[in-house]
Amino acid sequence: MTKTDNISTRRGVADQAIAIMFGTLLLVPAVYALPAHAADLASGTAAKAASADESIRPFQIHVPQSQLDDLRKRIADTRWPDKETVDDASQGIQLSQVQELVRYWGTLYDWRKAEAQLNTLPEFVTTIDGVDIQFIHVRSRHPNALPIILTHGWPGSIFEFIKTIGPLTDPTAHGGRPEDAFDVVIPSIPGYGFSGHPVDQGWGPDRVARAWDVLMKRLGYDHYVSQGGDHGSVISDALARQAPKGLLAIHLNMPATVPGNLMKAINSGDPAPREPVVTGARSV
Predict the structure, then answer these.
(1) Does domain 28-62+121-268 correspond to CATH entry 3.40.50.1820?
(2) Which of 110, 30, 100, 16 lies closest to 72 in space, CA to CA?
């Protein structure tokens, strides 16, 4: 690999990392092009009306330039710690690597390019259980395509799936068969990307999974499959346990088994137990 190739590779990784940062941490719903009714949500009456609204509205992203300028200023004002005393990662990620990423993020990264890439896709927003859910929905040109809902992880965003849309919706253009086609739905988990953030408690994996079933039914699908990785796999697993009518299968790329008593505590938000929880012969 040449030095130029290496730089290009690192920039590609940096682009993806920065896109995820924007999607999960920085571009909160307050800075996107809000749905028309969003300004009214401060009142309880409007919130109740919005929660009953089952419409699916077109959506376009536009982050105000003032927000981007403020972000770059905060990046430039970063106060750095002392350099580590070793030449390896035994004391954590090396300061020089972080500084390189932050320099690229603050001076070279082009959010408008990423924004335009997202806006070439059919994006929508709909209100489910009182929260605006932003999602990408691409139908295949092939008949009888299988609907699939893809759920990102944490930290993560819908950017994770951009390159999968073409092969999934148009497999014949990528060496596949027409019967391999999918209709693709890619939502942002509540509190991530451009979905709204919950204002009440209880939005754990189970509640998100129920919202995903509502979304698929609202889009007109009476059957579908679900895929998830990282935190998305937890949501897909919850969906499978709920077994709503029409869910045919799930695919996980982070399968895990958690004891039922621990999962109940995790989903309920209970505090950690004071004493170790013994599962079988092991202490957890």
Answers:
(1) yes
(2) 110
